[in-house]
Amino acid sequence: MTKHPAPDLRDELVTASRILFMKDILDGFGHVSARDPEFPDTFLISRNIAPGLVTHADFMRLDFNGIDVEDSGHRPFLERFIHASIYRQRPDVNAIVHSHTPSVLPFSISKRKSLEPVMHMSGFLSGEVPVYEVRDHGHVGCDMLIRNSDMGDELARSLGDEAVILMRGHGMTVVAPDVRLAVFRAVYTEVNARVQAMALTMGEYTALTSEEALAADETNSAQNQRTWSLWETQVQNEVTR
């Protein structure tokens, strides 16, 4: 069997950024990162730039204090602490997506209904998705951004062992063992939110049980290369037009 070389992680993050932009998960804001497998106490994330414009040269390597360990000279994202704290507290997480997709935002502010898995493609949501509320941590009158390690640690603790956390009036953060699965989960969190919102207009609905969600996630996680290959091809075709 022919062995293919592992993809360059920076190139994979470029593709991930463009897929997420194409799928309307990221716009001019938001970011995707990956733990550096060679230096697992650091992670790769682009400089402060719109995701759809990211190139290989735009990536920085930061430590878990959000410091640029390679002194690249790039300007980092203000919310790099989302990534730093989660990587520090969750050794199982190797990729993170943070976005502000409007389909998900209503569930971050609703006092009546939580985001929950309503379709087999979103089994990773695993019950009611937690919501990080800045006011509960004493951040009254703040700009809602995760600007330091203390706030990042609060978010990571609120996430716990889950795959997704919402941030009240802000957006969502999605985690996964690898970049491709993180992209899959970010896309299908948004799809689940749209489906659930539509179901709410029809009255009562039936969500997945925890057993169904776990079984569906196990199946889909093993097949997410199918969606990645499609989305990667679509991005490449768009670039070559």
Account of the 3D structure:
Helix 1 (9-22) runs parallel beside helix 5 and helix 1 (9-22) packs across helix 7 (225-239). The protein has 7 helices and 7 strands; from the N terminus they run αβββαβαβαββααα. Strand 1 and strand 2 form a beta hairpin. It is of the alpha+beta class. It has a 7-stranded mixed beta sheet, sandwiched between helices. The chain has helices at 9-22, 80-89, 105-109, 149-159, 179-200, 210-221, 225-239; strands spanning 31-35, 42-46, 59-63, 95-99, 131-132, 164-167, 171-176. Mean pLDDT is 94; it is low at 1-5.
Do you know the CATH architecture? 3-Layer(aba) Sandwich
Number of helical elements? 7
Q: Using only CA atoms, what is the Rg?
A: 17 Å
How much strand?
5-15%
Distance between the termini: 34 Å
* Percent helix: 25-40%
